[in-house]
Amino acid sequence: MAGNPKGDRWDSALYDDRHAFVWQRSADLIDVLNPQPGERVLDLGCGTGHLTAQIAARGADVTGLDASASMIALARQNYPKLKFVLGDARRLEFDTPFDAVFSNAALHWIPEADEVAASIAKSLREGGRLVLEMGARGNVGRIRKALESTLDARRVPYVNPWYFPDAAEYGAVLERNGLMVRAAEEFDRKVMLEHPEKGMREWLEMFAGTWLEPVPAAEKRAVMEELEQRLRPDLWDGAAWWADYRRLRVVAVKR
Ligand code: BEZ
Q1: Cβ neighbour number for residue 7 with a 10 Å cutoff
Q2: 23 Cβ closer than 6 Å to some ligand 1 atom
Q3: Which of 43, 74, 196, 252 gets the most CB atoms within 10 Å of its CB?
């Protein structure tokens, strides 16, 4: 999950404890990958390694790679028998090409999409496949709008670190970097957040840290309350918080 190359802001233990839906809800992507015994697979942005382990369980020779040292440390602790390496998706350096590259919820952290696509293409053998899921255009749209409105109103300068392309845009990125798109789909996935009361706050703290970093310390609590207030009508159902996820899934093959 954590492909964020701009420093390690991940609390991997909290991620595993409270945000397991990120990998649990995408577990069927492994069926799309359909890893075969002995195949060399790269799990790009492997996070804490749970999907890497599911790929390994199908008999593939899998390597998990993540830009976050904290994620890699926990992945190694979770699955000591598997291979995990720290690395940058924009600059993959492997001596032997992979049969497949798999990626879940990582590539939307890296706006340099052409660099990533070229790097993936370089790491695949001819005919090798890429199977990915990431945020699609409009992903967490209400949350993003609330962040923009709240921070604009307070004149807090912010950076949007998220890259959520639609299928046409991302397909073009892959095609111009040597990957032929075989299938692409976008779909909504509403996700119930783990903690009934604190769910949205915990989600924002985990995933919107870059947006909230410039908020002065004295204003942080008020900003969080304002965000919850703006989001409540759409994303609180009276018992739980929800996130308005929208996903992009792509299968592509190296030319
Ligand atoms: C996602 O997995 O869609 C996501 C991750 C971080 C921030 C926003 C969305």
Answers
A1: 9
A2: no
A3: 43
| CA of 247, closest atom in ligand 1 | 3
What gap in Å lies between CA 249 and CA 143, rounded to an integer? 21
- Domains contained in the chain, CATH given: 12-254 (3.40.50.150)
In angstroms, how far is CA 73 from the centroid of its own chain?
18
1: confidence class by pLDDT, cuts 50, 70, 90: very low
| CA–CA–CA angle 91, 23, 192 (5° rounding) | 130
Closest residue CA from atom 3 of ligand 1: 135
- Average confidence score pLDDT of the chain: 95
Q: Name the closest-CA residue to atom 1, ligand 1.
A: 135
Is the pTM here over 0.90, yes or no?
A: yes
pLDDT in tens, 65-117: 999 999 999 999 999 999 999 999 999 999 999 999 999 999 999 999 999 99
> Which residues are CB-contacts of 178 (< 8 A; sequence separation ≥ 6)?
117, 118, 121, 254, 255
pLDDT digits (tens, 9 = 90+) for 214-234: 999 999 999 999 999 999 999
Is 248 within 8 Å of 136 (Cβ atoms)?
Answer: yes
Q: Is 109 in the pocket of ligand 1 (CB under 6 A)?
A: no
